[in-house]
Amino acid sequence: MDINAFKEVFVAEARDYLQSLNEDLLSFEQNTDDIATVDEMFRAAHSLKGMAGTMGFDELAEFTHEMESVLDLLRTQELEPTPEVINVLFGSLDTLEVLLEETISEGEISPYKQQIATLEALTTQESITSMPFSEKSENQVAVDLDEFNRETIKQGISQGFSAYTIIVSLRDNTILKSVRVYTIFQALEDVSTIIQSNPSAQDLDDEKFDLTFGLIVLTKEKRDDIKQLVENIPEIANVEIRETDLSEKIEEEVIVANGQPDMTVKSKEVSSKKTRTASRPSRTETLVRVETERLDKLINLVGELVISRTQVVEMTIEGDDSVQKTALAQLDRVTTELQYAAMSLRMVPIKQVFDRFPRMVRDLAQSSGKEINLEVFGEMTELDRSIVNQIGDPLVHLIRNSIDHGLETASERIAKGKPAMGTIRLEARHEGSHILIEIADDGQGLNIEKIRQKGIERGLIAEDNGSLSMEEAAELLFHPGFSTAIEVTDLSGRGVGLDAVKTTVESLSGTIELESEPGHSTRTVIKLPLTLAIIKALLVVVDGETLAIPIQAVRENIQVEKNQIKTVQQKAVIMLRNEVLPLYDLAESLGFNRLDSPGPFPVIIVEMRGQKAGFIVEDLIGQQEIVIKSLSGIGKDIQGIAGATVLGNGKVALILDNSTLIR
Amino acid sequence: MSKTVLITDDTAFMRMTLRNVIEKNGYSVVGEAGDGEEAVALYKELQPDLVTMDITMPKMDGITAIKEIMKIDSDAKIIVCSAMGQKPMVIEALSAGAKDFLVKPFDAERVVESLRKFGS
């Protein structure tokens, strides 16, 4: 029976259920005594779960199962229908809708685990109803000081300002809360600079807060004067003020009492931020799909803005006009925030791809009868959304290859003296302006002789070619139409070989390398660019040209006298804290004119793949944020150059690809 | 001597309501204006300690009137009165120099709070 024949019916019916769930929840919100409506909803969720399971839509089934559990508790009145619970349900319906449509269109599934966790939090709460309603609840208002603002505050303090955290609670009958907040901002801005607020100024303006909000200000006024100033504004219930704690913890949490009786339910599983947002009705929020082209344009413009800001800052750095400085600090802060916000639109953690592998590996382990342990690292590594969307299939293929061709069965492994359980290691990490994704297994490695035979069979190599090197064998594996699988299994080898993987990776301007230790391991490394990224770089001068070195790779910079440079095997080296490091003249490495100087030389110590090296440069300029612009045409393949950027002074600087410089 | 207040509103009913609340709390209402123009003229003439200012009025609206009065006296204490849903205009009035805002229908205690906090 082909289940897909029923898909149309499933789609229509599932959408109907979703619609009725929405309608029922709306009516239940109006009348929370109406248990019959909850019964109805429970049945709808239950039916959806069954349908999804039948179709093999596991994500949908998992999600509706959690909803069903919450509805069941509501139905049996073990869970109080607080506004929070209702809001979580509304949020879940939104997630469910997205999930449903994505499943139908067979598209990429957006993350929904967070929403599941939120639902689970409701079902795992202990003694929900036994919690007395009169008990004074706590709502958290945290003013999370970000790194940038922390710096701003430190600077302010060094100039004689004081930083205060102010927690303001409005009276519960305040009518135009946002306007009241406006008057508070207005009053404070007369005597201080508002560094940060929580919720954000935008959320305050949209009234996305209960009654309490927090501010951090920089001022020369006394604490009590500030307090009195705020207290003198009408409709204020309470003002707390204290010196801002600048200690090392990143999040500073201020817990304030909030007399809202229906907020009693507060679960540890739900983070404080989630609790806050969940307490606001959010049912109008859905995903907005935007063409990546438009995002690219925005990000490019933001990049230009970052450069302009740098220009402005450079121009005005001379004077000591504090008004101008404050305005610049503000510009700086807003631009930085804008930059991160714009970048984050395109960047997603690779987690959303990695997340599906544990399940896949478990299933494949079962069907292949092998014991497999999957280790996942760096799943929070972020990369461009479009890359994440396309890298899934190649990774699936490589993992399947590892299971199918790489790892041996438990008995084979034991016979070889290996642990019965094979390991597949999946790791993502940043390296310079690239991201590396590594898939490694401790299986049998490449059988070079078998690959050679196959290559001859397929007419890809000449018979009398002698033995293959590891590189040549790997190259063959990526050749179109090459497959070493003796029999085509369900797991891999379905006509699409490693060449398809290579094609995809290359279409993302990436590279793929495979290395193997026969009998022991296979390791595949995919290297992908972070196009359009804004990175921090160290600017140096080489042969009169400015070059940018991505800061992640830079360890330190030192001065080296000519007599400190030694020669080992005809290569220049330096000693750095008992380590011998190869030393290169950056100008020479790039084919520029050699630096002609008696020294001392500025040397940048760079580390790549655990390997350190020193590069002699002409001069150091300093750190700067730069927008990576990929080179096209003839510039694309220049070794050692990853791209170019426009500097604050309008000049173009080449960005070094440090990974290709150390060999 | 009690503080003096100028009431501005285009409806006699609202002026009456406000006068009642204000006088009950020890302030003296020295004038009533029915539109912005009148308010500006009366401000010059009476130099009141406080002004209540409606937004939507004929001839000259409250926001223009606030700007005019601020030109005459940058220390003027004006409290803008709005209806629900006039948020952008209230913000405009506040940035034009109004000290505080009241939302109709008026809550007597709120009116007094604003008078007390800004009349001193």
Features:
heterodimer; A: 663 residues; alpha+beta; Four Helix Bundle (Hemerythrin (Met), subunit A); Alpha-Beta Plaits; Helix Hairpins; five-stranded mixed sheet; 24 strands; B: alpha/beta; Rossmann fold; five-stranded parallel sheet; 5 strands; globular
Total count of domains of chain A:
5
Helix percent of chain A reads: 40-55%
Separation of the first and last Cα atoms of chain A: 57 Å
- CATH superfamily placement of the largest domain in chain A: Histidine kinase-like ATPase, C-terminal domain
Enumerate the strands of the largest sheet of chain A in spatial order, edge to edge or round the barrel: 16-20-21-19-18-17
Distance between the termini of chain B: 13 Å
Total beta strand runs of chain A: 24
Q: CATH homologous superfamily name of chain B?
A: Response regulator
Q: Give unreliable regions of chain B as ranges.
A: none
Q: What is the CATH-assigned architecture of chain B?
A: 3-Layer(aba) Sandwich
The multimeric state of the shown protein is heterodimer
Percent of residues in β-strands of chain B: 15-25%
Strand percent estimate of chain A: 15-25%
How many domains of chain B? The number is 1
Q: What is the count of β-strands of chain B? A: 5
What is the helix tally of chain B? 5
CATH level-3 fold name of chain B: Rossmann fold
Biggest beta-sheet profile of chain A:
6 strands, mixed
The largest contact between protein chains, plus residue counts on each side, is: A-B, 12 and 15 residues
Q: What does the radius of gyration of chain A come to?
A: 30 Å
Report on this model:
The complex is a heterodimer of chains A (663) and B (120). Chain A has 5 domains: 3-124, HPT domain (Four Helix Bundle (Hemerythrin (Met), subunit A), Up-down Bundle); 138-259, 2-Layer Sandwich (Alpha-Beta Plaits); 293-349, Helix Hairpins, CATH 1.10.287; 351-529, Heat Shock Protein 90 (2-Layer Sandwich); 534-661, CheA-289, Domain 4 (OB fold (Dihydrolipoamide Acetyltransferase, E2P), Beta Barrel), CATH 2.40.50.180. In chain A, strand 10 (422-431) and strand 11 form a beta hairpin. Chain A is 41% helix and 25% strand. In chain A, helix 2 (35-55) runs antiparallel to helix 3 and helix 17 crosses helix 18 (470-477). Residues 126-140, 248-285 and 485-495 of chain A have low confidence and may be disordered. Chain A has 21 helices and 24 strands. In chain A, the strands form 6 sheets. In chain A, strands 16-20-21-19-18-17 form a 6-stranded mixed sheet. Chain B is α/β, with parallel strands linked by helices. Chain B has helices at residues 12-24, 36-46, 62-72, 87-96, 108-119, and strands spanning 4-8, 28-33, 50-54, 78-82, 100-103. Chain B has one domain (4-119): 3-Layer(aba) Sandwich (Rossmann fold). Chain B is 48% helix and 21% strand. In chain B, helix 2 (36-46) runs parallel beside helix 3. Chain B is built from 5 helices and 5 strands. The longest helix of chain B is centred in the first third of the chain and has 13 residues, at 12-24. The interface between A and B is medium-sized, with 12 and 15 residues.
